[in-house]
Amino acid sequence: MKQISALLLLILVIAACSRSPYYATNKVHKQQAKAFAKQLLQFPPIDSTPMAPEWVGTTNFSMRKPSYVIIHHTAQNSCDETLRTFTLKRTAVSAHYVICRDGTVHHMLNDFFRAHHAGVSKWGNAADINSNSIGIELDNNGFEYFDERQMASLLALLDRLKRAYSIPTTNFIGHGDIAPTRKNDPNWRFPWKQLADKGFGLWYDAPAVTDTLPLGFNHITALRIIGYDMKDTVAARQAFKRHFLQDSTRGPLSDSAKLILHQLSKKYF
Q: Active-site residue numbers?
């Protein structure tokens, strides 16, 4: 009998030790998800609006789907640090996915839920990016190149998301693109061309020697066509250079840079 009791105690100790360090926050996550599920099942609320005496529910509806993917770097020093940040209520920040340097993918939030990753941002006519996008955080402190294993996992994830939600090729962008006055992620080392070659975002063709800018070309208009918020033209120009030229973001656009911008604006138009 003592042996059985000792064995049971050992099993309980092992179970306690093997419990996820995020057990408590996972429990909170499930509670919040259940609360949202209950809201989806609620009948239209009764308020001051004149309502018909009998509710009639349509049979033609579906879940709202994301139409953008926003890529970030975490600006932190490890995956564990980021996971902790995203499980603390006081930080009020989150993402749908976190991809570690070794390629491990953490799916932290259902794709149909609204994550708090974009903040105040704008792309084209879309102003509430959090409500129509998926946020992906790459474990990177902002001053590093991106690990090949991490990129392999990212490309596989993007392929699934694009097919699952019919996300347009143009709508794979960076946090620094949608919030150029506040953010610079993913940093200039991020391989945007590699993504574009796989169908996630657009890229330019190498300009021919004979290419010239059309008369009256306006780089402000071209940046706006691509999607940049032009309230701060310098910040928008810097974001464009960080994404597509990946050189110094300072200074005006050179003639060769304007040729690239002109070519891209025609693709986005």
A: 137
